[in-house]
TrEMBL record, chains A, B:
This is Aspartokinase. Catalyzes the phosphorylation of the beta-carboxyl group of aspartic acid with ATP to yield 4-phospho-L-aspartate, which is involved in the branched biosynthetic pathway leading to the biosynthesis of amino acids lysine, threonine, isoleucine and methionine. It comes from Pengzhenrongella sicca. The lineage of its organism: Bacteria, Bacillati, Actinomycetota, Actinomycetes, Micrococcales. Substrate binds at T47, E74. NCBIfam families: asp_kin_monofn, asp_kinases, PRK06635.1-1, PRK06635.1-2, PRK06635.1-4. It comes from the Bacteria. GO terms for molecular function: aspartate kinase activity; ATP binding.
Length: 423, 423
């Protein structure tokens, strides 16, 4: 007997018909003899509708109340799914994050799981029932307040439960067939990846690939939970995210796993910073103190004549206002000349564990971009990733050029659907 | 400083605009220096929409899952209301039934409150905040499963919290101006009742008056909680339900409080029952064992020649199928000839504590009905109530005739609106 944790996203349970379809898949898994725990997101657009209701009531909803509001969505989907499974003659019990023992810190809106005590889930499984668990939510340790885990939170719930229950696999059902070598909406010839390491998947997620959240993959790696990303709309095998590749896979391991892209960042350039020790550090301190995470940094070589330098960095565009306000307030102290803000940038990342041992990867990347006439504004690298910032206009062309240059194009087309709520 | 528990029904929080309107009323009460606890129902039609979703998924939703589904409605309304109050600069925290300490038995769908431990509510009040509590829901004592309290459950939540917090008054806000001498849709000249005793209010509720639930009034009487029923759409005083009337009220106490009516019952007549000891008792045992509550009973005088008698009783029409099936199964054992089922009946009830000491009330009632040409099928009485069953067709005429005969008509008209979800 195998213990499977399955997670279904909002697009897989968008309406009564979808819920009944998913229920059939779950009932079949249970009837095949497996123990099944299901983590479910809110139905389709429920979350957006609740956010809109909050907006109608107040421009500044308190985060504690916002979390209570949003978690109503999963209560609805989880109870309906349990009903639909029961209607097929398979026992099913639904559990809130609290009932499932998902304990978090107290940061409303993006809480982190600090413990999972799934006693009631284990009991339900022992009684032969399927356990349905509300994704995206938990409860604080001492005050029993409801929290939400932020974007991709349901994936994290699923992996955390899989770890706590020592599950054999965590299946993430979504509306695409798995993880692709690039976004198929931009690169129609993108291939589905059969297997990928946690490390590479983390770089993909951090670089803008939306199919799995970064936290979820971090959690899976820490606890060694195999994650199978697959479509709830087909019976196909998807992408297995795992610790190590099989012996045979290593032999055939491609140098490059895929090309990720990200349009959600912006670039701030601080112009005319006095080139004296501590000034650059002070800029990043000011930004960090305002609660903003910086991604890439470039400091130009100082012009000796002026003793001034320019510093550019990227950050989530949603934090742009906070960061520029903090820097403006610190201008007298830091003594920079001016500041530029650009939210029309795009980031392309090439990811692959194989690039560790294969020199020449970056040369090939830059020559592909150059041949396509694309200007590079910033560069950053890790052992298994190279990222470049381009103008947003050129990002799609850049992704296609790089995807081709590294022979990632598939010979056969795959039917894929994109969408989903990201919970 | 006074502690007020306010309860708002679904029609009072039907949309964002209504929520903001109610928030202003609550903020004003808090600013006036009172401690305020608010119990809130689900928004407008939310409950009906959730029930419809469940119906689309399965014809027989398990009651545990149904309770989880339905309680999502109050999570949405309570968090939105807390946000709207916070937006007016008044601190507000929302609490689920569980967080508010509403402990119930395990009967899903119509659980009974067995304890209320409002420690977190008390803390919120001590911190100066308004506490918003989800109505209609509780949690089981040992398993922490979510339960709902059934029809009128939010009123019961409000009264139970008022009792546990030793509140000065429990205000039930609804879409009518209070309790009326009859349903104003049937009797346009019906008067609002200023004060009414728990006892009379219980008879009104049990006889079909929908403005307050029976359980809620029972609870209020047991703990001596004064209940003020009033409209959330006006600033007028409503009806005070209280332990005893004031000295001056007793002097002017009217004989009759009001006329209630009920269309929700049906009548079963068991024809040709052998008139031997134990047969009638057996009929009621069979019905009781099927879980059905009987209201009124009439046994005809036995026809000596045949040794057979007829027995009629009324019951909720929703239980008609269960009861007739149970009786049909028991026909060989009981040996009755046939059974008749009639769901086109109506029940009129005249209620008033004054009728205890005023003879002639029943004579006046029967003569009024007789003058109006209305046939009486069954009669039952208590110390402060007389109920009669008529045909459903004649019920409205009967209510108007009795209302007039007891001088309950108002000289001035009152603007009232009916509706609401009954939660």
């Amino acid at each position: 007997m195998v213990l499977i944790v399955q997670k279904y996203g909002g697009s897989s349970v968008a309406d009564a018909a979808s819920i009944k379809r998913v229920a059939k898949r779950i009932a079949a898994a249970r009837r095949a003899g497996d123990e099944v725990v299901v983590v479910v997101s809110a139905m389709g657009d429920t979350t957006d509708e609740l956010i809109e209701l909050a907006r109608q009531v107040t421009p500044l909803p308190p985060s504690r109340e916002m979390d209570i509001l949003l978690t109503a969505g999963e209560r609805i989907s989880m109870s309906l799914l349990a009903m639909a499974i029961a209607n097929l003659g398979v026992a099913a019990h639904s559990f809130t994050g609290q009932q499932a023992g998902v304990i978090t810190d107290t940061v409303h809106g993006k809480a982190r799981i600090i413990d999972v005590t799934p006693g009631r889930i284990r009991e339900a499984l022992d009684s032969g029932a399927v356990a349905i668990v509300a994704g995206f939510q938990g409860v604080t340790q001492y005050t029993n307040d409801v929290t939400t885990l932020g974007r991709g939170g349901s994936d994290t719930t699923a992996v955390a439960l899989a770890a706590a229950l020592d599950a054999d696999v965590c299946e993430i059902y979504t509306d695409v067939d798995g993880v692709f070598t690039a976004d198929p909406r931009i690169v129609p010839t993108a291939r589905r990846i059969d297997r990928i390491t946690y490390e590479e998947m983390m770089e993909m997620a951090a670089s803008g690939a939306k199919v799995l959240g970064l936290r979820c993959v971090e959690y899976a790696r820490r606890y060694g939970v195999p994650v199978h990303v697959r479509s709830s709309f087909s019976g196909r095998e998807g992408t297995l995210v795992t610790d190590e590749l099989e012996e045979e896979d290593i032999v055939e391991e491609p140098i490059i796993s895929g090309v990720a892209h990200d349009r959600s960042e912006a670039k701030i350039t601080v112009v005319g910073v006095p080139d004296v020790p501590g000034k650059a550090a002070r800029i990043f301190e000011v930004v960090a103190t305002s609660g903003v995470n910086i991604d890439m940094i470039v400091q130009n070589v100082s012009a000796a004549a002026t003793g001034l330098t320019d510093i550019s960095f990227t950050l989530p565009a949603t934090d742009g206002q906070v960061a520029t306000a903090a820097l403006t307030a610190a201008q007298p102290e830091i003594g920079y000349a001016s500041m530029q803000y650009d939210d029309t940038i795009g980031k392309l990342s090439l990811i692959g564990a194989g690039m560790r041992s294969h020199p020449g990867v970056s040369a090939k990347l830059f020559s592909a971009l150059s041949r396509a006439g694309i200007n590079i504004e910033m560069i950053s690298t890790s052992e298994i990733r190279i990222s470049v910032v381009t103008s947003a206009d050129h990002l799609d062309d850049a992704v296609r050029a790089v995807h081709s240059a590294f022979d990632l194009d598939s010979s056969e087309g795959e039917a894929v659907v994109y969408g989903g709520t990201g919970r």
